[in-house]
Amino acid sequence: MKKMKSFLGLLLLVFFFISCENGKTAVKDNSNVEKLEYKENMEKYNYDIVIPQIKGVENEDISYLNLSLQETARIIIENIVSSADIGTKEMPIEAKMNYEIKENNFNILSLIITTYVYQGGAHGITTVETYNISKKDYSLLDYDVIFDENAEEHFNMKMNDIIAKSKENNGSRYALNSEGKEVLFFENAEANIKNTVMYFQGDNVVFLYPHYEIAPYSSGMPIFKFDKKDIKKYIKIKI
User: Fold this and answer.
1) What residues contact 167, with CB distance under 8 A and at least 6 apart?
2) What residues form DSSP beta bridges with 224?
3) What does each C-alpha distance from 171 to 93, 182, 229 come to in angstroms?
4) Which pLDDT tens digit goes with each residue over 173-210?
5) What phi, psi does 20 have (nearest 5°)?
6) What are the CA-CA distances from residue 141 to residues 130, 132, 197 (Å)?
């Protein structure tokens, strides 16, 4: 995770969100999560930013996460507004940010943050970030906290097997993207767990690759799922 630049940055952040009341809502969600929305629709630009905020929990990880998401939203909004002159009525620049909570059987709160920014060109840029939080103590759980040193080799081997089978069979639904559609991989695609984001859904741990990492933009973001019972020996923490 990224560190806050300075205390002054935090003060500016707080000031920004107190001042920017345009379109702000706070709605109760499950798992102690509230959503904050900042929305503006102008002729040459628009943004619709929705971020999660975990309430009722007092620890360093959650405080930092809440502030980090606010800071990310602030930067996106500032960039869109300051770039308004490159937008047009027909092709306004825009930014959208939303989140989803993935229900799972790992006793983990998995937050998936999806951001889309369009600032001209053939298409916008979509990025995905994930945050996995223990429901026991609300600590942030990184990959290395959850899995042991042998897991990386296992995951990479299994993913490369799927990629190879997909190539041999010209896709044939061996691998799917985040929208459930078939993936056609780059010829030189090679799995690397370090280039993914991770979340938990149902009985699976899911690894998602960003655009262009191992497949063309038209193939979306490939995902690989591993069942809890098949990876149990690699999990370090009690779930």
Assistant:
1) 185, 187
2) 207
3) 35, 7, 27
4) 788 999 999 999 999 999 999 999 999 999 999 999 99
5) -85, 80
6) 10, 5, 12
